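Obj.: predict assembly geometry.
Materials: sequence records (below).
Method: joint structure prediction, all chains together.
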Amino acid sequence: MSTEHLFAVVMAGGSGTRFWPLSRRLRPKQLLALAEKDRTLLASTIERVSPLVPPERVLIVTGQHLAEATRNAAPSLPHANVLAEPIAKNTAPCVAWAAYHALARDPDAILAVLAADHFVVDRAAYLQVIGRAVEAAADGSLVTVGIKPTRPETGYGYLEVGGEVGPGFSHTVLRFVEKPSHDTAIEFVRSGRFLWNSGQFFFRADAIVRAFEAHMPELASAMSAVRSATSSDQEARIVEAAYASARAISIDHGVMEKADKVRVIPGDFGWSDVGSWTTSWELAPRDASDNAGPALVVDARGNYVHAPAGKVVALLGVEDLVIVDTPDALLVMPRSRAQDVRAVVDALKGKRDDVL
Amino acid sequence: MSTEHLFAVVMAGGSGTRFWPLSRRLRPKQLLALAEKDRTLLASTIERVSPLVPPERVLIVTGQHLAEATRNAAPSLPHANVLAEPIAKNTAPCVAWAAYHALARDPDAILAVLAADHFVVDRAAYLQVIGRAVEAAADGSLVTVGIKPTRPETGYGYLEVGGEVGPGFSHTVLRFVEKPSHDTAIEFVRSGRFLWNSGQFFFRADAIVRAFEAHMPELASAMSAVRSATSSDQEARIVEAAYASARAISIDHGVMEKADKVRVIPGDFGWSDVGSWTTSWELAPRDASDNAGPALVVDARGNYVHAPAGKVVALLGVEDLVIVDTPDALLVMPRSRAQDVRAVVDALKGKRDDVL
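Observations (raw structure tokens):
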């Protein structure tokens, strides 16, 4: 497989309120070291694909308010490789911009569209799957990577494939299914015909552009001039206008679900979307009593602690809590409530915006 | 009742590890505002008796390492009224020193020996009881104040009186009982003949000196020269020698349990020994869901929070926890474990002495 035309497009526009109080408006999830010590999720993402994609061909798409912090978190990238969106409009405009931008650099560009805030345990297995996805994209297919489900997770989207997922490489996607009910999820897992949608996409830039032209023609039309922009200022003006008129819609809904030739590569490499503090607990090294994080523990089990370096956190007799301490805000909740952190953030809005 | 000879002797030598991480070696319980906003327990104690005892006749006995902080916490007192013990030897040497010191100032001195770290809700009722105790001490009796028990508390000492505790003023104490078992405590409360030992004592200075001479003659002998010391330097040298040879024993064990003419005044004024963070929760104003302290609460009940001013503490879905946050240490435990904080302090010894 030749990778000389391969660009990584890292989508890094998330706000990630579920990791408050560590995450803040100007320090969202992808800029936090939530899975590995001292390495942000964004840096892990870039590092993970580095055997296939050098920094010069890594594009990061993020919000303008995060551009500086993002460049600081990815110092090996050329300054111009951070594409700063004027306004958040979900992932379809983001992918469209990246596709036209890459085409301007290389008419044969192939894109690996990756989330900035996911985590992979087995990098070697991951690279193998990526390689297969890139190969499968060579004929103009729109390719995604599906994760073999290990539980009836209701927080993910699912992909249904034609037959039972076999050891083969590539399957046709019959349909995308949004977060299912618990009963439906159980059925999906039992059937063997469903994969988790990992939100990673692989396609030739010209192929996805054709798909935008077919399924989101206004966006394609507004963005296409990026391909022939002669300066970054000119590109910025085109992008600003395109985003202003763009619908806020995901690449899944806007294009993938409607397109032909959508294929999926099954992957099994220890994938996590790092969806909440509970995931951080699952990914972290734990003591014999299942506590994770820097805590002094007396009769306590199953807790996750995040705290500033040097601070003593003492847990006495508590179980299955998440405790996240920062200099100006502290959160305490059961692990089982980690999906509800947004309720806390909402309650603080307008009252303590200084800690959001 | 004449109070012109009345001295308050405030015993302020406690270390109070049960209030870690707010309490530290150099900032023990009595120097914390645990029951009233912005007022230390020590300051409350002095304020409470101020209608009977002016600052000039308030003596505070504390450890040398706490002398400066104690003087700062009681700025109305003359510098010399803080008696700094060279070494902690429980309460008997402390009371002996205070008795001889007071006698040197006033041969007719009457002492009200008070704990620096307790709390009283009804001050007017308290002052009435104090007045009766002082009156009862006039004839040379050793007088204590007993609290009518409201529950079979196993954490307190009890006083058994001759008959059922009536509305009368003073009862002869038959015996002192250390912290009883739960079954014994239930029996005590049912019998109506037991009172909680509140650790407050009232006696003429010459009467307690005679009791020391009878029951702790070595201590009396070593300390008696304080009465005729001609300088604070000379007094310090006498005290240092007396403490060096003194047995570490409480005034209860060393004298009160052995003495004749021990009487008790029953009191009912909302007394608390502020024994743990659970007590702080009980004493604090609480919201409709029984949470106390400065927290942002979502689906949480029965929690107690102490945190630095301005810090956001968010509780999501947790119940009956104590959360004590300080800049360098954080403690999380169930309210029911508040008696066990010492285990945390012990675990930190030698590892993180900087937070003790």
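Conclusions so far: The CA atoms of residues 129 and 334 of chain B lie 36 Å apart.
To do: check interface contacts against the pulldown list.
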